[in-house]
Amino acid sequence: MLNGTLCATERALCCLVENYQTPYGVVIPKVLRPYMQGRDFLPWVKDLPKGLQKKRPEVHANNRQRLPSSLCAEVYSSVFV
């Protein structure tokens, strides 16, 4: 069980994924490996559904668009649940 007294656990996990992700999974930082039973890599276990690729809006360099929250929730539930 994690105690979130000192830091926001969800935000810390998001930072790890954003900074250490690869196309094949997440590289575990060296300082955290002793707490991960020596693992150095966590592979993705599910592929994204093919239908989600088409729903993503076009993003141009001069006109950035945010993904709709419903799409973010759908991607999250299909990958992490």
UniProtKB/TrEMBL annotation:
InterPro entries: aa-tRNA-synth_II/BPL/LPL, Ser-tRNA-ligase_type_1. GO terms for biological process: seryl-tRNA aminoacylation. GO terms for molecular function: ATP binding; serine-tRNA ligase activity. PANTHER family: SERYL-TRNA SYNTHETASE. This is Seryl-tRNA synthetase.
